[in-house]
Amino acid sequence: EAGYRLFKKVSITGNVTLSSNKIIEFTEYVDNYDLGGQTEIGHTNTDLAFSPDIIAAAGLQYEPINNLSIRILGKHVGDQFLDNTSTQTRKLNAYTTFNLQLKYTVKDFLCKEMTLGLMVDNIFNESYENNGYTWGYIAGGERVVENFYYPQAGRNFMARILLKL
Q1: pTM for the whole thing?
Q2: Burial class of residue 138, CB neighbours in 10 A (0-12, 13-18, 19+)
Q3: What CA dihedral angle connects 109, 107, 161 and 96, to 10 degrees?
């Protein structure tokens, strides 16, 4: 994590997390409707579910006048798997989103301090899923896998008023 003021009115921030979370060996149990019971499938050296190798963020903030800040934030999350098998068809794809924040603070007007804010999330309207689950079984001699995803909001807006009395 780092931050630096480039100029009097411009600063940057950023962070990155790199990780490799592996399961050395495990057994997957799949419901087998043809035979009854479960079929065991061995796996080795797989990625831990919901554990991306990279998560990174960067921000740029500009303060054109006193009490006004404009900030753009970018976030990247790498590929991650819905289960512990590292199967490509059971994966959440990497995504990158950007948010914009505007904040203006007025002091001693109607109250001790009032901050007006506007946030635009996902400003480029990126389509992505950040969570989900998978389920599978064997039926009719075939392995069936069903994936379910939680799509996230497209571009959206949020306004706020913060009063300090």
Answers
A1: 0.86
A2: middle
A3: 150
Q: In what order do the strands lie in the sheet with 38-47?
A: 38-47, 22-32, 129-139, 142-151
Structure tokens belonging to residue 14: 């950023």
Q: Render pLDDT for 79-137 as a digit per residue (tens, 0 to 9).
A: 999 999 999 999 999 999 999 999 999 988 778 999 999 999 999 999 999 999 999 99
**Pairing state between β 68-77 and 95-107:** antiparallel
Q: Reduced to 3 DSSP states, what percent helix, strand and coil does the chain have, rounded to the nearest 5?
A: 0, 65, 30
Measure the CA–CA gap between 73 and 122, rounded to whole angstroms. 10
User: What one-letter code names the amino acid at 157?
Assistant: F
Q: What is the DSSP letter of 47?
A: E
Q: Which of 31, 39, 28 is nearest to 87 (CA)?
A: 28
Largest CA distance in the chain: 75
DSSP category for residue 94: P
Count other C-beta atoms under 10 Å from residue 90's C-beta: 20
CA–CA separation, 114 and 164 (whole Å): 6
